[in-house]
Amino acid sequence: MLKFKNLFFIVTFSSLLLCLSVSCHKDTVLSDPNKVTDTDGNVYQTVEIGDQWWTKENLKVTHYRNGDPIPNVTDASEWADLTTGAYCNFNNDTTLVATYGRLYNWYAVTDSRNIAPAGWHVPTDDDWKELEIFLGMSREDADKGDFYRGNIGNKLKASDGWLRDGNGTNESGFTAFPAGLREICANPSLCDNDAPFDRLGDYTLFWSGSKVQSEEYSFCECAWDRFLDAFGSGVGRYADYIGNGYSVRLVRDR
Predict the structure, then answer these.
(1) Which of 42, 53, 88, 145 is deepest in the core (most CB within 10 A)?
(2) DSSP secondary structure letters along 32-63
(3) Other CB atoms within 10 Å distance of the CB of residue 104
(4) Separation of alpha carbons 154 and 175, rounded Å
(5) Distance CA 233, CA 238 (A)
């Protein structure tokens, strides 16, 4: 019996050492707060801003968390008619993805299959407000809608890559690049729904996961986003049509 106990101890101790050298190390890497991996295996650097952890790069994923594909819709008229999740690459050019990520409609952002990996989510409107207030925006400005607010855009913008001398200081480490957009006319009776790509180098817009709940915006199905441009240092909080193609950042769950 003594020999059996000694053997059991040796096997158990050896297993613990193996865990420390292989499995436990693997778990440490996977939970590293400085990076996050999406369903496709893309790895994103992250940054701590206040009490939040944000991805420093735009989302590139092409599958939901459960493995289902997110459709890549390249045709303009098909994109304009969507009522389900989809993504595209700016100008349908895959060479731009490494720098700018992909563009998603809001249906993909809020799909129940989850566009974000476990432990992360698309920021809500309140998540964005928390970031802005930490960087120096007043609560009054943070709550304003359809308004180019504050002067903290330069703290969010990358220090290179913007046209018209529009680079930021990137003081926050957020590293926002001007990824452009794919825009749908919310009221087809007033404009053409040709889903153009536009403003690469000048604009970037980030979805929130929060739909606008206000009679003021009853003219369209709108969601809150955040807007940065090469022409100023503010941050826009706008209610925009959910069919548009915008960039996506992630924030870590608490």
Answers:
(1) 88
(2) -TTEEE-TT--EEEEEEETTEEEESS-----B
(3) 26
(4) 10
(5) 16
Secondary structure (DSSP) of 103-130: EE-HHHHT-TT-SSPTTEEPPPHHHHHH
Instruction: Tell me which of 25-39, 49-63, 106-120 is least confident.
Output: 25-39
Residue 229 pairs with which residues in a beta bridge?
Answer: 203
**pTM for this predicted structure:** 0.85
Neighbouring C-beta atoms of residue 11, cutoff 10 Å: 10
- Please name which of 53, 222, 226, 214 lies closest in space to residue 129, comparing C-alpha atoms: 226
Q: Do 242 and 122 form a contact (C-beta atoms < 8 A)?
A: no
| Cα gap 109→184, rounded to integer Å | 16
